[in-house]
Amino acid sequence: MIPSLASSRRWGLALLLASYVAVWSCTASSDLLQLLSRAHFDFTLNMYGTLANVTDDRQQNLLISPYSVFSLLSMLFLGAGSESLSSAQLRAVLRFHNISYASVQRAFKEVTQVLDNPYYYRHFQEDADLLLTNGVTPADVYARALDEFYRRSVNYLNLGAPSAQEDLATWLMSAAGSGSGSDSGSGPDSPVGSGVRQLPDLEAALADNPVLLLVSRAHFHGSWMHPFDPARTFSKGLFFSKPSQRLTMIPSLASSRRWGLALLLASYVAVWSCTASSDLLQLLSRAHFDFTLNMYGTLANVTDDRQQNLLISPYSVFSLLSMLFLGAGSESLSSAQLRAVLRFHNISYASVQRAFKEVTQVLDNPYYYRHFQEDADLLLTNGVTPADVYARALDEFYRRSVNYLNLGAPSAQEDLATWLMSAAGSGSGSDSGSGPDSPVGSGVRQLPDLEAALADNPVLLLVSRAHFHGSWMHPFDPARTFSKGLFFSKPSQRMEVPMMTSRMLVPLGYNSDMEARVLELPLSTRRISVFLLLPDDMEHGLARLEANLTMDNLRTLLATLKEVIVNVKLPRFRMEGSGDLRRVLRTQGLTDVFDPVSSDLTGIDPQGRVHPGPLLYAASLVLDETGDSGDTSGSQQMAPSEDTRISDKYFEVDHPFLFLVWDYHSAMVLLMGRVVHPEPLF
Asked: Read out DSSP for 472-512?
């Protein structure tokens, strides 16, 4: 009976890049949080004003948790009949004028995730409870939704028990539940209400044997950023309740720091809208995309054979280098060069780490593990262990840990090969630990030169591994795949490859200056999309496209995307890429980090024994009809009709092309490459 949370909102990368890849700034979830924040603050002022007006004694204290009450009523809104007067009145009181039912719940889920941090439990403990009585149990779908969006559960109170009033009093004074900042379950032993001594009239509350009680409890005891000095507290300060009535013996806290609410209110308390973390993600996304194009361009230029395939995970390499940046000496040349290569021009050291923590949280979703498995590893050798503070920071911001490789073992090279081909680690979308039994590299068979990589007995190995096998939003029909399609690596060189065909409604664009077309093929739920960049010229178009692949040119090309009916022909293939990126990174100016003498990674090892050796990468990609599953029931292929056939567009991938795999939610390029010789999947 809970309406399905479906949205018709559709995303396009052109709009994203038009704002310089500022995905999280004022879009996606931050929009929902902004709308919920506005509604909440409007509700707060109205509720407080009404409470102040209906209170008989204007001289009494008032204290309430607007967030807790707002949560309670929103939980009622979750369970209200969609067209009922109850739902309409709750919407009006909660100020949900411009936010849909589904968006309310999704925004609350994000609020709950934010507040589910031990920080809040140290300062603010809160719980909002629905207490059912008389043996009534909630519908299972409501209980699941309550847990999904609010991390709450319905609790029970036995009104028939002689101790019912006492039980409720205990609940109010001491129970915690599963509210913000607490990992503990509901019960009288948890500390939420530890500061509560004043209770409402419980006898009156239970007089009518209510079926459902709504209970809000909160306690605040903060720890100041700038603590007051107890030695400066004056034990006999004065506080005037009225001009003629003063209370003595109220300790007065002295401090030179003063805070104002004016600035907060000037932005309508839209704290999450376009500030705080969304700004950080915007800055990180810009840096990442700039880094991606520069790294790919350099990789393409230093590759001896322009006719070979290229495949790499920019996100994974970006993560690895950012982990080095985390451990670089703050004023060192190593840190400065890492900042330049990573394009961290306008983002502070601390902001980089906080932004990466949010990216990691986004990618730590089972959705990604079904489509894209990735790991970025720091492998220490020769018995060196990282500083404890670095290990903790690595776990906090990247959800990674330092791993170890015994170079003295006869199987060292074999162990590294196994690691590259099959280990998963704690990367995006995976809850499993690092090790050769986990599936990240399951598609990797092509390895870099491991003998050369280990020749100099490196103290630190950087290892990037990624595998992509997506499930299309509009799957291709295997029955329509032509087994003997043609792909021209050169005008005079052709190969047979299975050619998938479909007719679908997808974004298509073209730019005459770049002489290239672009097609977006979204994966299921459209969190990830594959963008295919196909040059007009079969022989020289790919080299020209790579040479002109700048941020501005790509933004111009993607800005032409429009949703039309397209007849798509795409090879069914797999590809791999691997190598050592040191040459690429040195070409970009990252020289000091790889110098055993001058490298400064004293944040990792204060004794200065750590410097990176090779940065090894291995990536694989599979594009087939459906991706992970064989189900094509979700296909939206359309049979041509006489009315539409003339206006159909065509996108036939029969010669070399570029592609990138983009994640909308993290604003990261998961994979990027060029396809010159697709390996057929027969």
From this structure: BSSPPPGGG-EEEEEEEEETTEEEEEEEEEEEEEEEEEEET
The first and second tokens of residue 539, run together, are 């022989």
Q: Please state, rounded to an integer, the average pLDDT across all residues of the chain.
A: 79
pLDDT-above-70 percentage for the chain: 79
Mark 244-263 as b/e (b = at least 16 C-beta within 10 Å). eeeeeeeeeeeeeeeeeeee
Q: pLDDT of 264-297, one tens digit each? A: 222 223 333 333 346 788 889 999 999 999 999 9
Cβ-Cβ contacts under 8 Å for 457 (sequence gap 6 or more): 381, 382, 407
Residue 84 has which token pair? 């009922």
Class of domain 13-220: alpha beta
The answer to whether the predicted template modeling score (pTM) of the entire model surpasses 0.70 is no
**Most confident stretch, 104-118, 132-146, 252-266, 326-340:** 326-340
Helix, strand or coil, per DSSP, at residue 596? coil
Whole-number Å distance between alpha carbons of 302 and 3: 54
Q: Is 669 helix (H, G, I), strand (E, B) or coil?
A: strand
Phi, psi of 616, deg, nearest 5: -90, 135
Q: Do 661 and 352 meet the contact criterion of CB atoms below 8 Å apart?
A: no
* Residue extents of the structural domains in the chain: 13-220
